[in-house]
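Quick question, first post here. What does this chain look like in 3D?
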Amino acid sequence: MLQRNLLYTGVTRAKKALVLVGQKKAIGCCVKNVTVNRRNTLLAERLNGKIDRMPANQRYICFDVETPNAANERMSAIGISVIEKDKITQEFFSYVNPEQPFDYFNIQLTGIDSAKVAEAPTFAELWPKIEPILSSGILVAHNAPFDLTVLQKCLQAYDIQWKNLVRYLCTVRIGRAELPGVSHKLNDMCAMYEISLDHHQADSDSRACAEILLRYMHDRVKIGRYIRSFGMSSPRTIIEGTCSI
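> Answer (accepted):
Ran it through. Tokens below.
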């Protein structure tokens, strides 16, 4: 965000007075940085209505990851459920050797320990198999920023280059907007919709996420308006409308 064009835009909006709050070094970086990255706000699509009318052949890649410890920097399992034409058409599951120690809490939560993943592929070994799936549509997860951040950290840890930005949907975010007043925890949502769930098992959680998204579609929720972009080069870059945080 330290770009000259953005600083110029802010400064030139002042009519009577201007107060800059921050570090002189940051202002200097803005002045020197003339790089203008491609905007990914989807504003044009929103204005012409295309976001609310998603194409019938759009693929949604619902995924869930489990982690071995509190650092949440590696996967111990990943589940993927693909939605095409309003139905689940493909599913994938794999344990992942995180090459990190397991915390007792995570073992109790997921049932996954070092013995269970001893023969499993590492993330780097698994990536060629899951990358074509993850790249084939809009990513979806229940509390998506968490799963996307784990994915981003795994890519960084193994020095794997992928997309700078990915488009995604968060079924928690959609639920909070469309169904206020109810719990949006995965197990509570599944109970409400009578969806089978073996919680904290990546294959079951990813399928449950897909089933919830299908319920939203069935209820004619305009899910396109909830599409966001996540910066894979930085886990805190979430582009929403015209704001980036």
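The chain has two domains: 4-36, 46-244.
DSSP finds nine helices and eight strands in the chain.
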